[in-house]
Amino acid sequence: MTTCAHLDEVRHALTAGQWPHAAAPELRAHAASCNRCAQEILITTYLQQARSAAIASAQPGTPSVLWWRAQLLRRNTAVERASRPIAAAQIFALIMVVLGIACIIGTRWRSLLDPTLPARAAASLATIRGDWGIIPLILAFTLIPTLGAVILYLSTERK
Amino acid sequence: MNWEDAIPSIAIAEAARATEPAMDSDQFTAVYQRSAKPLWAYLARASGDPSLADDLMQESYVRFLCAGFPGDGEVASRMYLFRIASNLLRDHWRRPRTLPIEDLPPNRSAAPDTSAQTDSRLTLDPALAKLRPRDRQLLWLAHAENYSHREIAQITGLAVTSIRLLLFRARRQMAHLLKD
To answer: Which of A112, B71, B81, B176 measures 20 to 30 Å from A130, CA to CA?
Structure first.
């Protein structure tokens, strides 16, 4: 990789728009005999012209559209970030419910398999009906599926 | 309707606080007006595709605003924009080039348009077209945008020593093409 002591001067003249007419005659004489400087002048002049042509043909859109698009994106990202703890709490609650049900089944599985269970359950229901009437039973039997449906809806609605 | 929608004000207030932009609309407009054309020129010449340059330029500004760049002056903002644009270009080049048939342009199989109405922006200079995209990118940053090796390293994510070597080779190839 060859370099030249006058390269910085040549570069400065090129970027300042002084090349070739406003450049020092000694520098121009040097550039005529130095391969590295000649290469720098050739490429920089070519690319500066290409840049001017490209800038002249550029048709950038309005900045306000980009501004609002970015604001919307930032806002959506922030809302998503803020709702992450809520989603985590939902998952935690679901896990606790499943664990609770598993614990009940695990500790009571013998009584659940008891063949007299339906008869005992019917007797309990009859006792409740006798003591409290039919309304608490209707409420209980409608509340359980309703709550189940609500939980199912809330857990799947996001998807 | 989810239950957290019942407390939208909390989430939106949190979001509003988190989305305080680093610059207001007027400041952004000023930055945009000064930097959009050079950025588009860079993307168009490095990629050789003006339509892609349009898309990447828009995406660059959206990312620039979303990143909340504090903006330590015009030069730093501009360099940061070039860095985002370079990353987007690199991602584009890395992406596999398979297009589903639905996405193909309708006149793809037709003869090329040779009329004078063809978009003049599509023309890439022959010498630039023969270079590899990365070489075009480096040469543009060094010679058209006048960035130093260290600044180019920051923009492209390459090491300064690699920039020096890659630029040397690209410069030699370009000089050869221009002389031909």
So the answer is: A112
What DSSP string describes A115-143?
TTHHHHHHHHHHHHHHHH-SHHHHHHHHH
Q: Would residue B48 be called left, alpha or beta, if left means φ above 0 and alpha means ψ between -120 and 50 degrees?
A: left
Same structural domain, B70 and B26: yes
Q: Which of the 8 DSSP states describes residue A146?
A: H
Residue B40 lies in a domain: yes
Question: How far off is chain B from A21, nearest CA to CA, in Å?
Answer: 20
Mutate to test the interface with A, among B9, B65, B145 (most CBs of A within 10 A): B65
Minimal Cα distance from B167: which residue of A? A1
Q: Which residues of B touch A55 (CB under 8 A)?
A: 37-38, 40-41
Query: What confidence score (pLDDT) does residue B19 get?
Result: 55
Can you list the residues of chain A whose pLDDT is less than 70?
Answer: 1-2, 157-159
Within a domain: B158: yes
How do residues B39-58 score in pLDDT, each as one tens digit? Answer: 999 999 998 888 999 999 99
Domain residues for B176?
124-180
pLDDT in tens, B129-179: 888 989 999 999 999 999 999 999 999 999 999 999 999 999 999 999 888
CB pairs under 8 A between A and B: 123
CA distance A138 to chain B (A): 27
